User: Which sequence fits this backbone?
């Protein structure tokens, strides 16, 4: 998350959007449009689709601004999640999920065959500014860490994570599940 | 749904992470509307993982994107939209507005009834400005505000508004150059209200009016704190 040392008031801008102030939406766009396009592009992987996502997300922010509860002071996070979910929906509706829910027995078998301390090559360079999340991710073993970051940043499906990290599908699912649980515990 | 807590946390985590297939994603999105626990778990995950967005390098949008977004903001009740439509009369007559507001005839009839009952008033009481207060989500009209040149203001409900027992409706306004909204007081649900705006400047074009849901005694901070139920901007009535 880039610093917001410029003191931009996201909650106030969203409140103004709810009151029909189009310039407030434009200020949000000027403030974070390039970051949001970057986030969308990593997920949908095509420039034209990423711009479509940003377009649809901003129209949606405009219409949903009133439902955002400004009291929480989390306007920026809300805007990023609207864009991310727009991008994820676009990505997932484009792909036919070839990795349909495979049977759990096979997963369990693959998992059993898997060594405990397997490491995978680091795919991402984490940043210290990510604060507590950075610390908690670094406490995870590499498979769990890379599965989580691959999914969040690049919109990887289970199958894509398996291919990238060269790990069995069942293992990836277990990594995600346990990685998320550990992260939740670490971050509170 | 009968998820255990742990299952719900895991589902929320994978939803935010993005690994769920489309069908499951859509299922979660449907459930969010009615399941506060799931909503809270999702919100917590959004917050935990947000710093990871910094790993995506910024990309400058093409110059054509903002104008395209701006064009898509569709029916809105901004003064610009009114001006673009050729002024108040055209805007008022524009069927698309009524459709957007409420699905049409019933609401239009109600507003006409309100207008007609006011017709015999002396000139000073003729509304100089009107505001249709619209529910932001459903785009349905909830109230009409009329302000006369002698600073009398009426607020007329157009539909029933359900208010929880421990809450109140509070009425606010904000001029285009004001720092913050000013309270016009609490509103009894489903009753009209007449006010004298003695301490405020004359209503001006574009002035914002809104009704928010607040604690029973009204906002404790003097500013709107609760969700906006209805809002709109003042438009000068050409008489």
Assistant:
């Amino acid at each position: 998350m880039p610093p917001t040392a410029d003191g931009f008031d996201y909650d106030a801008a969203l409140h103004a959007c709810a009151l029909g102030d189009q310039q407030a939406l434009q200020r949000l766009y000027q403030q974070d449009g390039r970051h949001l396009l970057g986030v969308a592009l990593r997920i949908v992987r095509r420039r034209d689709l990423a711009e479509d996502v940003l377009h649809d997300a901003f129209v949606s922010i405009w219409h949903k601004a009133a439902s955002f509860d400004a009291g929480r002071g989390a306007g920026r996070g809300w805007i990023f999640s609207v864009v991310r979910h727009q991008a994820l929906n676009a990505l997932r509706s484009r792909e036919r999920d070839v990795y349909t829910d495979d049977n759990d027995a096979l997963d369990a078998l693959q998992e059993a065959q898997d060594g405990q301390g397997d490491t995978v090559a680091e795919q991402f360079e984490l940043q210290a500014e990510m604060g507590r999340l950075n610390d908690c991710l670094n406490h995870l073993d590499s498979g769990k860490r890379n599965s989580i970051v691959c999914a969040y940043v690049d919109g990887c499906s289970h199958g894509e994570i398996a291919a990238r990290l060269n790990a069995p599908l069942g293992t990836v699912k277990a990594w995600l599940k346990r990685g998320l649980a550990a992260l939740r515990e670490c971050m509170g | 749904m009968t998820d255990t807590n742990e299952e719900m946390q895991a589902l929320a985590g994978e939803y935010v992470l993005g690994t769920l297939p489309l069908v499951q994603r859509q299922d979660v999105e449907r459930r969010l509307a009615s399941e506060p626990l799931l909503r809270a778990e999702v919100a917590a995950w959004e917050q935990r993982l947000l710093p990871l967005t910094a790993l995506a390098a910024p990309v400058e949008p093409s110059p054509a994107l903002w104008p395209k977004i701006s064009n898509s903001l569709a029916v809105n009740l901004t003064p610009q939209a009114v001006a673009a439509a050729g002024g108040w009369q055209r805007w008022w007559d524009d069927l698309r507005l009524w459709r957007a507001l409420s699905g049409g005839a019933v609401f239009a009839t109600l507003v006409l009834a309100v207008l007609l009952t006011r017709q015999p008033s002396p000139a000073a009481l003729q509304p100089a400005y009107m505001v249709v207060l619209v529910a932001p989500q459903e785009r349905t009209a909830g109230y009409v505000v009329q302000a006369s040149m002698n600073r009398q203001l009426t607020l007329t409900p157009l539909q029933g508004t359900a208010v929880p027992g421990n809450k109140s409706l509070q009425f606010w306004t904000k001029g285009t150059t004001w720092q913050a909204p000013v309270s016009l007081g609490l509103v009894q649900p489903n009753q009209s209200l007449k006010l004298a705006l003695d301490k405020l400047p004359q209503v001006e074009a574009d002035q914002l009016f809104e009704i928010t849901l607040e604690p029973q005694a009204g906002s404790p901070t003097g500013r709107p704190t609760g969700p906006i139920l209805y809002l709109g901007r003042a438009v000068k009535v050409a008489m």
About this structure: Chain B is about 35% helix and 25% strand.
